[in-house]
Amino acid sequence: MNDTQKQALAAYLIALGDDELILGHRDSEWAGHAPILEEDIAFANLALDEIGHAVVWYELASDATGENPETHPNHLAYFRDVHDFRCVQMVELPKGDWAYTIVRQYLFDVAERIRLTALAQSNYPPLAEAAGKIKGEELYHLRHSAAWVKRLGLGTAESNIRMQHALNELWALAHQLFMPLPGENDLTPDDIVPVSANLLPEWEAVVRTAFAEADLTPPAANTSPSRDRSVHTPYLIDLVTEMQKVARLDPDATW
Amino acid sequence: MLTRDAIWQALEDVPDPEIPMVSLVEMGIVRDVEIGDKTVTVTITPTFSGCPALQVMKDEIVERLKKEEGISDVTVETTYSPPWTTDWIAETARDKLKDFGITPPPRLDGTAVEIVLFEPVACPQCGSTNTSIKNNWGPTPCKTIHYCNSCNQPFESFKPL
Ligand SMILES: [Zn+2]
Predict the structure, then answer these.
(1) Which pLDDT tens digit goes with each residue over B92-111?
(2) Which one of A72, A213, A238, A254 has the largest count of C-beta atoms within 10 Å of its C-beta?
(3) Which residue of A has its CA nearest to B114?
(4) Which residues from B are below 8 Å from A51, CB to CB?
(5) For B4-78, which CATH superfamily applies?
(6) In this structure, are strands B73-78 and B39-44 parallel, antiparallel, or unpaired?
């Protein structure tokens, strides 16, 4: 990889890490509030997994640009300006009701699994290895969110309506996951990362089948309101402020 | 004189922080030991990448090895390659997990986890396969929670990975 590609890869991995970190943070908000005790445990662990995956991506990004992989991930999470985050808007939004959380998690899990499958074939071995590792763990996320899609879609009239509302709100937003990531165009010619748009057909096929089996219908609108990962919703500011508050109160604290 | 065998032996004393009846060596977490001039480098691989116990493992390895004579510096490195798999859990550790009430993970031997997940999980208390899964996560991310319909007891199972 040349220097431009190293910078591009770092930008790409930080964006992937930001998706995981912010979604993980939203998932963690269910701790103590989930509809049943089992889900309290499940979502606390799911959040832990997502945040752990963010650390893996941030570490790889640090390696690519010669930053210290022990300390730089913490800097990225806790001391970066909110405007420098590159997550998709879908993960920023408040957790909503249980149906909203499940639909968001499911749309994200399927997209992630397809991207990780492609990244596991990367020409950059450290990236391929990390993707292979994370993919094995994400299987459990997908099994969980897919089961809930079916359970709520086919549950009661009320649960079906709530799922359909969530799907109506999230469907177009989820398409932002298939817009080019920062740095992507410098990396695809050498097969270091996949072309994001090429992952879309498989995702559509998988999620449409699952929603059909759960009596749910994706809406017609499928254009993401934003292409650009530097454009955020106001919700991200609140989330990042809260997330960074303790770390910034005493940056030199040892834990 | 420092030998690799002696270091591996010493590492047998370091328990897995979340499942303390088994050692990090038995769990397949310790991958390599290298000896330099009074220094030791231990390479470990995380089980689940979000595992919150990773730092504790590193600290405990350093603490244990510093007790060995002739070691002035211990470095612990992490690798993701090749990725950890539950197939690396030693037979001795599988027996200990079962005795502790945790069903050990099935051996994959190259079979995809997706396929193995269709197989019933046996109760560690009575051996019955008439069990149902209650949660994809347990007290730690690496375990699932099940219920045995034969002896009416809940139990945990280590996730195949
Ligand atoms: Zn039983």
Answers:
(1) 999 999 999 999 999 998 88
(2) A72
(3) A139
(4) 50
(5) Fe-S cluster assembly (FSCA) (3.30.300.130)
(6) parallel
